[in-house]
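2.7 Reproducibility. Because tokenized structures are sensitive to small changes in the input, we list the exact sequence used for Cadherin 19, including any N-terminal residues retained from the expression construct. No trimming or masking was applied before prediction.
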Amino acid sequence: MNCYVLLPFMLGIPLLWPCLGATENSQTKKVQQPVGSHLRVKRGWVWNQFFVPEEMNTTSHHVGRLRSDLDNGNNSFQYKLLGAGAGSTFIIDERTGDIYAIEKLDREERSLYILRAQVIDITTGRAVEPESEFVIKVSDINDNEPKFLDEPYEAIVPEMSPEGTLVIQVTASDADDPSSGNNARLLYSLLQGQPYFSVEPTTGVIRISSKMDRELQDEYWVIIQAKDMIGQPGALSGTTSVLIKLSDVNDNKPIFKESLYRLTVSESAPTGTSIGTIMAYDNDIGENAEMDYSIEEDDSQTFDIITNHETQEGIVILKKKVNFEHQNHYGIRAKVKNHHVDKQLMKYHTEASTTFIKIQVEDVDEPPLFLLPYYIFEIFEETPQGSFVGVVSATDPDNRKSPIRYSITRSKVFNIDDNGTITTTNSLDREISAWYNLSITATEKYNIEQISSIPVYVQVLNINDHAPEFSQYYESYVCENAGSGQGLFF
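Resulting structure tokens (single pass, no recycling of outputs):
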């Protein structure tokens, strides 16, 4: 059996196509194989491939030539092309066996076509050679730019991270043939983000190249470019944006807004009263900005500070009652520190911020104050009206020292003057009443609502103002003619 020879062309270079239907005894036309052709052996056949560049803009591109060595050029043979793509993508000149691509090919859509070739003797209508498959491979050109796969990119990295810290890896893909030169070999570069970031050229790994402070800038936009053909001239490129946010670390200690606070407290305020707030600020956020306030210096131990963890304010409270007349001003020192500090960040918190607080005690109009909590006086009975009993004394504890007016509640026996002197208004009889319980009231003349009262006890002392008396009337009897010394009868 005879064979036919396909003489393909790629960019004008003739290639060897295998003999179809050749046997051991067949005579095969020998054609020198050019360097670079692709050959493989299958069932004793020598196979070759056609190569067609993708994206050719010509309406008819010559692929190669199919020819039997029995074809003597008398146009008695007819060449046929069968299989997927025959007639639509590829056509054959039935007389010459020349194969043409009639539409633009895209390797990324389809990289090879498997077709069948057949040669028919027109005079007999019979096949000169049996059908045989061959391959047309679409060769790649660099017509696809790199594209990033997982956009949008976003990463979070702690502020003050050291140089070389991994941030994120971006990856681009190139639809071109990775086995075709450098068409799909990518090189990454940084278009925006210097000097804080760098990118590894071959991996797309973004790393920190300079420390950053979140309090100065909390996020950065980085633009990464991927170029194919390892960045050589004519390379195509694609870009992506990466949003890099800095998370907070506790690298700032809280600092008081004011170096001096002035507060006031009423001397009538009960213990536990809130008398004012102090405030520190911290450039950190969240847990790193939580504070604890405390008293650093208070010799009187009169005040305390608690922390409002919702507002991060320090609340100054009264721990002991104050008295304007005893001490009308105080000075205390407060300090503040963070609640949570990691050991490796203690270098930022070596010295706590402090502030001084001046507290002024406000005077309150207080009621008169007696010198004693109660008084006990003694007086003999039967003393004349107006006799002296005793003296009580009360003073205004406030600075204005209001005069005091005294009075006795519901008593018809005693009287008291504006000097606090108690006298009798009637003669006293111990045998009628040995004790008197009085209530003395002191009232400020400048403010009659300021009143104080104390108890006064008056004991009436006995005098010998009564002759003895028999408890009953006695009637006695004596006999007449009774002698001296004789007893009487009752």
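DSSP finds no helices and 37 strands in the chain.
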